[in-house]
Specification:
By secondary structure, the protein is mostly beta strands. It has one domain: Jelly Rolls, CATH 2.60.120. It has no helices and 9 strands.
């Protein structure tokens, strides 16, 4: 599998689980467009890298402008909002239970 070879959805986003082991999950996210701000809040910690494209997120009142290569750690139970996305953006996200890290 090549992370960069993927068919993007016509609209919205597609989440593809690449690997799962217990509570650890590696997800490829293919982003094309947003109908409006999209809110998220996960019970697990999340580390993401924007591999291609650009995006804007709001986390705890801070607006973050991400570009290809930027990484971001989002602690469990932290609300965050995706407010804009460049068509063809490609993410890699790793979700895991913070209680199991040590």
């Amino acid at each position: 599998m090549n992370l960069f070879e993927a068919a993007f959805p016509e609209t919205g986003e597609r989440f593809e689980i690449l690997h799962r082991c217990g509570d650890l999950e590696i997800v490829r996210i293919l982003s094309t467009s947003l109908d409006g701000p999209k809110e998220f809040c996960d019970e697990r910690d999340e580390w993401v890298v924007l591999m291609r494209g650009a995006a804007t997120l709001v986390i705890e009142g801070r607006e973050l402008h991400l570009r290809a290569g930027d990484t971001l750690f989002i602690p469990a139970n932290t609300p965050h909002t995706l407010t804009s996305i460049a068509a063809g953006s490609l993410w890699l996200a790793i979700h895991y239970d913070p209680k199991r890290c040590g």
